Amino acid sequence: MKNSLATIVGFIAASLTVYIFEALIGHQLFPFPEGANPMDMEWIKNNMNRIPTGAKVMVVIGHFMGIMAGMFIAGLISKTSLVPAYIVGGLMLAATVFNIIMLPKALWFSSSDIVLAVAGLWIGKSLAQRQLKI
């Protein structure tokens, strides 16, 4: 039961972290052009070149930080297993890859997003592992 809770809360924490970096910080520091609808996937697909570079960087940072935060929280709650952290990290990595595949992006964006997501997994595992009480 505790591991299920760790997985759920870890995933929520990861998603919330991505949202904070991407939407709250990124969209405030780097506003979208007039008339943009960041919730409309079609608009984003057709106007990727109009989205500020800083906003794209915040997405990459959000994915990196979200994976680490979610895995850390999952480890903090579980205290006995890395499985919840691995599940959270795997789901977030899958979401990152899905994002890369679904939206046309510049090579720098896609490559940095995947490299930092994998780095987030590695660091997140280390952070979660430190929480284990075995």
Biggest sheet descriptor: none
The helix/strand series, from N terminus to C terminus, equals HHHHH
- Rounded to the nearest angstrom, the distance between the terminal CA atoms is 18 Å
Count of β-strands = 0
Average pLDDT rating: 94
* Beta-strand content bin: under 5%
By secondary-structure content and strand pairing, the structural class works out as: mainly alpha
Radius of gyration, CA atoms, in whole angstroms: 16 Å
Q: How many discrete structural domains? A: 1
Q: Which spans have pLDDT < 50 for at least 5 consecutive residues?
A: none
> Given the C-alpha coordinates, what overall shape results?
elongated
Secondary structure tally, helices: 5
Helix content: over 70%
Report what the structure shows.
- By secondary structure, the chain is mainly α.
- The protein has one domain.
- Helices cover 77% and strands 0% of the residues.
- The chain is built from five helices and no strands.
- The chain is elongated and about 55 Å long.
Structural key phrases:
134 residues; mainly alpha
Summarize it.
By secondary structure, the chain is mainly α. It has five helices and no strands.
List the helices and strands and how they pair.
Blueprint: H1 2-29, H2 41-46, H3 53-78, H4 83-102, H5 107-129
Helix pairs in contact: 1-3, 1-4, 3-4, 3-5, 4-5
Protein name: DUF1761 domain-containing protein
Transmembrane segments: 7-30, 57-76, 83-101, 107-124
Keywords: Membrane, Transmembrane, Transmembrane helix
